[in-house]
Amino acid sequence: MDVTKIPAKLPGNIEKEKVAAYARVSTKSDAQIHSLDAQIDYYRKRINARADWSFVGVFVDDGLTGTRSDRPGLEDLLDHCRRKKIDFVLTKSISRFARNTVDLLAIIRELKELGIAVFFEREKINTLTADGELMLTLLASFAQEESRSMSLNKRWSIHRQFSEGELAGMAHLYGYDVVDGELIVNEHEAEIVHMMYEDYLSGMQSSEIAEKLNRMGEPRKRGGKWKPRDITNVFRNEKHTGNALLNKRYVLDPITKQTKYNHGEQPQYYIENSHEGIVSQELFDAVQEEMKRRSPNKEAPKPHNKPFTGMIYCACGAKFQRKKSPVRVFWRCGRNLGSYGGHCSMKGIPEETLESLCCDVLGISEFDANTFRECVERINITGDNELTFLLKDGREIQKTWKDRSRSESWTPKMRAEVSRKNRERAKHGK
To answer: What is the pLDDT of residue 14?
Structure first.
């Protein structure tokens, strides 16, 4: 009888599991940064203490909420996972990982397909176990609702402050510092505001003023370089006159953080002489008139060139991207266009089909980009020929579409384009 002898594995030859951790804090306060440092130190020690684990690193996001899906630390972690550099992920809790249930499950399912488990320490959930995803779905839903409740409570508190004539949310108002809850004029920034006004009334464009400030090395309140829209926002902010219009924008959904200009949907509050002004009302009004004079034909909103960009999410977690051929425009999963690692089997969808489905969902006869962006939060591709529209009013509408035959898919425009190209080839003898 043939017997194959397998040598015993020596302790030094044990194949170690590549383990990483994810940590996040939602603000950049000193206390939160200290918490983040403590999390990093904890995970480094915990992973290195296991002989069968190999420490890959701790991926972190600081000052970013769990409801945001565009977190660089998390994206870096996922990139390492897709490149097979990680076998196992540790994280403190579901709420640290994400509070958007849809995004969370999409990430977990992608990692599961890669054979990578995520362990949530607080909930003691391993996503590769049989009941892991069920428990995760339930608890993630609770975390999402907790986030929504906290946001609503915060919104109520701010509205109460507004109704009592108190200023709130002014921490990043250029020209001022917030001291003990009061707006105090920042003399240097106030001089810059005056210079902006004078330059604009002398004939300079917002873009030229932005370039001037960047050459001077003057940072924005939040840091970084000035852009033309930053200059315009300064000009439109009535708070520089010492008066305050409150609740100009409001949050549509605390999960997505989508905001909208308040056109009467919520109460607004105007407080006169709420703080010390930087510019006179006359100077402010003069700039408003000059802005109107320079853009008489720009009252209508500028149509979106590519309204679907950043709005379509594949079930694999990647975003759909636009792919243009000589005769047709398709939207395909970014993994299949080289923007993400790996490959996705999800089918693409023609742009004209997307527009047609949008018309059905929104009850309009002709596709309008501005209406689409105003009403639709995102589109989830849930399967081949299956889409779910998430509307800003909270509704979810599922749609399916059929592939047209090749002959049916050719529009008169497409036929004309091909005919034109054939004529060009014939003309040049090709």
So the answer is: 61
